[in-house]
Every structure is written in C-alpha cells, then in structure tokens.
Write a structure and sequence with these properties.
Blueprint: H1 2-24, H2 27-34, H3 38-52, E1 57-60, E2 63-66, H4 68-91, E3 99-106, H5 110-124, E4 128-135, H6 137-146, E5 151-154, E6 163-177, E7 190-193, H7 197-206, E8 215-217, H8 220-230, E9 233-237, H9 238-246, E10 251-252, E11 259-268, H10 269-272, H11 278-285
Parallel strand pairs: 3-4, 3-5, 7-8, 7-9
Antiparallel strand pairs: 1-2, 5-11, 6-9, 6-10, 6-11
C-alpha cells in the first residue's frame, strides 16, 4: 500500500510537471513555476516518457512542441490532475462540510448571475465547500470537460456526454454614459466593448453610420472603470452597471438600442447528483419558482 501511494504521488507530480512545461512553453519556466530545479523538471519528464514509452515533447531553442503522443497525453493529464486535486480537496474537508462544488465563471458574468450562484450556496448551504475560478469561455469548457470544475457559468456551450445545459435569462446590454442626456450617436468618448459575435453584428446594424470607436475593450469592468475615471460611454451589462447608476455616477442613455446576450449554466451530471439543492438554485437563477424545497 505504501509503495502504491508513493508511485501515485510520483505519477501525479510528473503529470503536473508535464502540464507546467506545456503551459509555460519551456523547462526553465516550468521549473520557476513549480519552484524546483531545471534538472528536476527534466528528470520528471524523462521518467514520465519512459513510463509511457513515448516521447511527449520535442525540445527546441524556441521552446517545446507536443508530439502526437504528447497531444493525446495532454488531455488525460489534465483529467487525472484535476481529479486528483478534487479528491484531495474533498477528502480533506473539515468537520461540518459534506460536499464540494467547484465553480468556473466567465469574468464578465460574475456581476449578476455569478455572484447570485455563489451567494446562493454560501448563504443557504453551509455544509457545502465552494471553490471558484475565473476563466475565459475556452478555459471553462476545458475545465468542465476535464473535471477541474463541476459547473460553469458561460455565454455559449455545447453539452458533452455527462453534461446538462441550463439556459438562464439573457444578459441585457445597455448604453451608459458619464453624463445625463448624452447623445445616442456622436459621442466622441464612446468606447466599444466586444460582447461577442452576435453583439458585433447587431451593433454594426444599429450603428452602421457611426464610424469606428477610438477605444476598444474586451472587458466590461475595465470599460466601466475607464468611464468612471475619464468619462465616456459604452454598452455594459445592466447587472454590472446598476449599482453605479443608483449612485448617480453613470446614466442610461435614453433612446439607445438595447442588446442581449445568451448565458447558461453547465453542470457535470455526476456532480449534480450529489447536490439535492441544485435544481432549486437553478430555478432561482432562471427567475422561476423552485419546484422543490431548497432544504
């Protein structure tokens, strides 16, 4: 048994090292990330390749490149290290905690549904340990597919295998300005915030003669901070902006076109089976009455 535990730990460490090399692009940067010597990283990689019986990485002056075997191994390494992290997390739960929910949230959706999901668990389910990670749509898709997270909040998703998609009310995108009675078109301080392909198309149709914006952001939060600090206007999610509207720091531009963006909650079905409270929380986020008692 002791030998098994040692080998398991060594294998997981080797996989983590392999992932660090792929993510950083070099053995040197991987050694810095893992706080070990480069020779240790080299030895771990060599041991993993000998155990697999395949070369996983090709080392070049410009960095490392995955071999076909390394590409296949990458997905399995992410799954195994994710499950190992989850297992350690769950088995180390202190007394009073019964289960774990690992939650991945798009950075743009934390304001509103992300916080509602998080607070819904922390307030009503004291027996649940909760871990939250912020990521892009691609990150979130990879994380839930490889088991790093149990549930994600994202804009677009395709159900895979043991996953279920729960559609949520669309996100409303509203034009806000630093001043009251701002013009709908012609504001020299207008900032374009990229809310995705559908928004770009709808925005182009509605403002076909408005010209190009001087400033562009891919983050609503950054655009909002710029407006608060430097003035301007931009399309922002209502959930993000409403607090600042109530404070009188920004204003909704009257008469401006409104846009919307789909969003959804995607859950790993095997994890959700251990959460009797999950359907009620989803119902709350969807704005409908819960079919079951949350208790």
């Amino acid at each position: 048994m002791r030998k098994f535990r040692i080998e398991a730990a060594v294998n997981i460490t080797s996989l983590q090292t392999f992932l660090a090399i792929v993510e950083t692009g070099s053995l040197v940067r991987a050694s810095h990330k893992m706080n070990v010597t480069q020779s240790t990283v080299t030895a771990r990689l060599k041991g993993l390749e000998e155990e697999i019986g395949q070369t996983l990485l090709i080392r070049q002056k410009s960095g490392v490149t995955l071999t076909p075997a390394g590409t296949k191994m990458l997905r399995h390494a992410r799954i195994m290290t994710g499950l190992w992290r989850q297992a350690k997390y769950e088995t180390a739960l202190p007394e009073g905690l019964e289960s774990v929910c690992t939650f991945g949230c798009d950075r743009e959706l934390w304001h509103g549904p992300g916080r509602a999901f998080f607070y819904g668990i922390t307030a009503d389910r004291p027996e649940v340990a909760l871990s939250v990670q912020q990521g892009s749509s691609r990150d979130l898709e990879d994380w839930i597919s490889t088991g790093i997270v149990d549930v994600i909040l994202t804009y677009e998703a395709v159900a895979r295998g043991n996953q279920t998609i729960h559609d949520l009310p669309p996100e409303e995108l509203v034009l806000y300005s630093w001043r009251d009675a701002a013009p709908v078109i012609g504001d020299p301080g207008y900032i374009f915030v990229d809310h995705g392909a559908d928004f770009r198309r709808q925005h182009a149709e509605a403002y076909h003669d408005a010209g190009l914006a001087r400033l562009n952001f891919d983050s609503s939060w950054w655009a909002l901070q710029f407006i608060l600090d430097n003035r301007g206007s931009a399309y922002l999610p209502r959930a993000l902006a409403e607090t600042f509207v109530q404070q009188g720091r920004i204003f909704e531009v009257a008469g401006a076109p409104l846009f919307s963006r789909k969003k959804c909650l995607v859950v790993n079905d095997s994890a959700a089976r251990n959460w009797p409270w999950f359907p009620a929380l989803v119902a709350r986020l969807q704005g409908r009455e819960s079919p079951t008692n949350s208790a």
